[in-house]
């Protein structure tokens, strides 16, 4: 019912369904000698793209539909990633280089004697999973409440989101923050008892990422198809009009902003065990800007456009940074300019004919 | 055109419009009526020392259709901003329906209390259909979570259809609001106000940019709504004000200059001096 008249979404979910069934088989069951074999490197790369796609959907929800151009969305992604990284660090236990049963290696190295209080509980997966959503969600709640209540909008809001992620990056770079400083969290061993380097775990993470993307898509589609979604679009198009119709605009913005941050956090949490590291560079403002480019390349306010954009731009990035590394940033910038000038509705706009997004 | 407000609310005493709307010529006596629905007293608003409103008092009766005219900068829009909660005055009092203190409520609260406002530039949700525009305006619980699960019931659909008929957009109900003509957008916005089941409608230049024919339609529409709703119209178009011909208030430099029927106001020497005679 939800997917009625949502061709792009149906296609996306079908592709994800096929990938969930086929990718692990091609990786695990098909022998390496076969030309159909999919390397673990590729599986992990695809899994990483899926988490990026979830982040892109999260941004599209608030940018495409609510008109809030967040230039700091990677902050929520990174916070989710750090929450997962903290669990993975605690899960190393005595297998670290220094063999301390409780303290992660970097704390031993810094000569810390005790675990900081905010690391408590992260030995439990359920607690970490909760924090993956709570940490970004709470930050979005506080930040959004202050910003939306003061009616900060447009470019000013974009600038302070950028400042937010930059401030977090500087804070996480500091060793005494207790998050591993410059090096971040890495050298993970196991996730829920599974070896994070094993092929089967990588395939499993791919499947979980695909499921998370599918669920995230369906959840966002449900939100934008509801009356709440129409109110949010109304806020984007005529904020004052919406307010004078009796809607408390700031609460609607806050609601979608927090939902978006939670989705970004989940994406970050799935990203970290696949790439094997989380460090403060994930907070870098440039990362957030890249997310904006994925969404605008794919096409705003369609959700599946964001997925397509994230996939295509990241594939191009993987290819170009390998083949012509010095060209990549120019290509990215050029792509953004071209899309803005010639394809204001993104790539999916090419296929949607005259049909306007909501 | 039949139209019954469906706002669930305590019964209020309705005053017969005919007793004053078409009453005999008399001195402007705003405070003589028995039940003003809008009661504004001694409102002052200043921006950086400039007094946009300077001790303005205004009383509008329940069911009245009031026109407010005045040269640019007279404070007409600022007055609407004060009534709808957008601007807080430096001093004064503003009450709606006797007990609602407008100065203590936010814009959404005032809207939900029953005051609808049409902007000077027609403002509709261009990317959504005419039907959806009206649905968004519908008087209902407008909190976040109820909106997530909201579904239209039969009565609500009927009401949207009813308003579509009133504003003459039944044929265009599935069109995007962005493709409507300027006049149709003005009507759609008036329709959105009606969906709110407001007791008081504030219309800022409802016929600006309309063709002659559209203006006539709008006059008919407003006349048909008066009595069921209280309506305040801010307008520059004198022809239009004359055609709806009710009580007129003239503002000048943030103060009330004159009030009365159009003919009286037109002959008022001070009004001629600052506005009409120019």
Sequence-ordered SSE layout with sheet pairings:
The complex is a heterodimer of chains A (358) and B (278).
Chain A: H1 7-29, H2 40-65, H3 73-92, H4 105-109, H5 125-149, H6 154-173, E1 185-186, E2 190-191, E3 194-195, H7 199-225, H8 227-237, H9 239-244, H10 249-275, E4 277-278, H11 285-298, H12 304-323, H13 328-342, H14 346-351
Antiparallel strand pairs in A: 1-4, 2-3
Helix pairs in contact in A: 1-7, 2-7, 2-10, 2-11, 2-12, 3-5, 3-10, 5-10, 7-8, 7-10, 8-10, 11-12, 11-13
Chain B: H1 18-21, E1 36-47, E2 50-61, E3 65-69, H2 76-83, E4 91-96, E5 100-101, H3 107-113, E6 115-118, H4 130-137, H5 144-148, H6 154-166, H7 182-195, E7 200-204, H8 212-225, E8 230-234, H9 238-244, E9 247-252, E10 255-261, H10 262-267, H11 269-276
Parallel strand pairs in B: 3-8, 3-9, 6-7, 7-8
Antiparallel strand pairs in B: 1-2, 1-4, 4-5, 9-10
What does the overall shape of chain B look like? Answer: globular
Helix-strand pattern of chain B:
HEEEHEEHEHHHHEHEHEEHH
> How would you classify the helix and strand content of chain B by structural class?
alpha/beta
Return Rg of chain A in Å. Answer: 21 Å
CATH topology of chain B: Rossmann fold
User: Which structural class do you get from the secondary structure elements of chain A?
Assistant: mainly alpha
Q: Looking across the biggest beta sheet of chain A, what order are the strands in? A: 1-4
Q: What is the residue-mean pLDDT of chain B, rounded to a whole number?
A: 84
How many domains of chain B? The number is 1
């Amino acid at each position: 019912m939800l997917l009625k008249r949502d061709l792009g979404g149906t296609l996306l979910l079908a592709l994800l369904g096929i990938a969930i069934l086929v990718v692990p088989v091609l990786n695990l069951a098909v022998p390496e000698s076969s030309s159909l074999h999919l390397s673990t490197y590729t599986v992990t790369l695809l899994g990483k793209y899926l988490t990026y796609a979830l982040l892109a959907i999260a941004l599209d929800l608030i940018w495409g539909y609510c008109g809030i151009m967040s230039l700091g969305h990677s902050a929520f992604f990174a916070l989710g990633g750090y929450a997962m990284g903290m669990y993975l660090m605690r899960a190393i236990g005595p297998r670290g280089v220094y063999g301390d049963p409780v303290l992660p290696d970097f704390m031993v190295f810094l000569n810390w004697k005790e675990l900081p209080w905010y690391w408590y509980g992260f030995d439990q997966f359920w607690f970490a999973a909760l924090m993956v959503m709570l940490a970004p969600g709470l930050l979005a709640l506080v930040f959004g409440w202050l910003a939306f209540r003061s009616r900060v909008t447009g470019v000013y809001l974009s600038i302070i989101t950028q400042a937010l992620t930059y401030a977090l990056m500087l804070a996480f770079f500091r060793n005494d923050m207790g998050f591993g400083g410059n090096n971040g969290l890495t050298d993970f061993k196991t996730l829920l008892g599974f070896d994070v380097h094993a092929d089967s775990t990588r395939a499993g993470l791919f499947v979980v990422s695909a499921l998370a993307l599918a669920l995230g898509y369906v959840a966002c589609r449900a939100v934008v198809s509801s009356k709440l979604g129409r109110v949010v679009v109304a806020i984007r198009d005529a904020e004052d009009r919406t307010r004078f119709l009796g809607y408390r605009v700031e609460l609607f913005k806050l609601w979608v902003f927090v939902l978006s941050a939670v989705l970004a956090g989940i994406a970050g949490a799935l990203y970290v065990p696949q790439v094997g590291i989380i460090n403060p560079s994930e907070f870098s403002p440039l990362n957030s800007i890249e997310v904006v480019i994925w969404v605008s390349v794919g096409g705003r306010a369609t959700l599946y456009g964001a997925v397509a954009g994230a996939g295509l731009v990241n594939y191009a990035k993987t290819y170009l940074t390998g083949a012509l590394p010095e060209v990549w940033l120019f290509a990215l910038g050029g792509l953004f300019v071209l899309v803005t000038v010639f394809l204001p509705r993104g790539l999916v706009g090419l296929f949607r004919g005259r049909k306007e997004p909501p | 055109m039949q139209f019954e407000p469906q706002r669930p609310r305590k019964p209020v005493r309705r005053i017969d419009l005919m007793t004053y709307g078409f009453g005999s010529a008399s001195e402007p006596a705003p405070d003589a009526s028995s039940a003003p629905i809008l009661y504004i007293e001694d409102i002052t608003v200043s921006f950086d020392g400039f007094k946009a409103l300077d001790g303005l008092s205004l009383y509008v009766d329940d069911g009245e259709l009031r026109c407010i005219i005045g040269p640019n900068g007279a404070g007409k829009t600022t007055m609407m901003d004060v009534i709808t909660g957008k601007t807080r005055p430096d001093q004064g009092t503003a009450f709606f329906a006797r007990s609602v203190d407008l100065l203590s409520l936010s814009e959404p609260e005032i809207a939900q209390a029953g005051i609808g406002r049409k902007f000077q530039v027609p403002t509709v949700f261009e990317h959504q259909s005419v039907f959806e525009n009206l649905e968004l305006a519908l008087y209902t619980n407008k909190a976040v979570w109820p909106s997530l699960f909201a579904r239209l019931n039969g009565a609500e659909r009927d009401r949207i259809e009813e308003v579509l008929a009133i504003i003459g957009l039944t044929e265009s109900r599935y069109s995007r609001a962005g493709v409507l003509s300027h006049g149709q957008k003005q009507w759609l916005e008036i329709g959105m106000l009606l969906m709110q089941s407001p007791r008081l409608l504030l219309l800022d230049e409802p016929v600006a940019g309309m063709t002659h024919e559209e203006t006539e339609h709008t006059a008919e529409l407003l006349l048909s709504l008066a009595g069921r709703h209280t309506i305040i119209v801010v307008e520059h178009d004198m022809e239009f004000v004359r055609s709806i011909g009710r009580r007129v208030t003239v503002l000048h430099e943030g103060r009330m200059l004159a009030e009365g029927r159009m003919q009286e106001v037109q002959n008022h020497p001070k009004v001629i001096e600052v506005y009409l005679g120019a």
